[in-house]
Predict the structure.
Amino acid sequence: MSVERFLHTIDGISTWVGKAAAWLIIVLMLVVCVEVFKRYILNAPTSWIFDLDNMLYGSLFMLGGAYTLAQNAHVRGDFLYSSMKPRTQATLDLVLYIVFFLPGIAALCYAGFYYAADSWRIAEHSNVTADGPPVYHFKSVIPIAGALIMLQGVAEIVRCVVCLQTGEWPSRLKDVAETDVIEEQLAHSEYVDEESRKLAIEGAQRIDEMARQRGMGGDLNT
């Protein structure tokens, strides 16, 4: 297996999990809407709905971490990073991954595993509300999400090594971006001529490219 295929395979796993977890936002919305209806229209609130909302949102947040890392979309606090050369970026990233990322995520996986195991052992229920729902399945998401982030982190470390060797960032799997949505909307508009459509798309792509100055590398069409 080539290095590029290895990286794209891990990217694909993170992307699939992230997109699957994204459907939890629909479930969360439906749960909130039902509870609002029951609470204010039927005057029959559900005691455990607050716990369920937290579990759904927490699962969505945690399972989206590896996908966000695969898209290089986590927020960076260093405004100097975008002005660095790729090899400098890779050196900085590699040091940070080894010193902070690996120990931190390893601790998350280790602690999360025993945290979830204890919860399953005692059939833990939430004590936030009366008649709280079981939480052991939710706590199982912690080590799973940690393992997925660790896997994606390994891919990012390999990317750093490749960049140090070649001077260029390896490609990433392409995902739907705002520019794709803009292009699709303009393509079906009756009120935008071809020249205006072209200028709008180029402007959106230019802004998107400026936001990618952190060294995402080329995209691979899928």
About this structure: The radius of gyration is 22 Å. The beta strands are 172-173, 219-220. The first strand starts at residue 172 and ends at 173. The chain has nine helices and two strands.
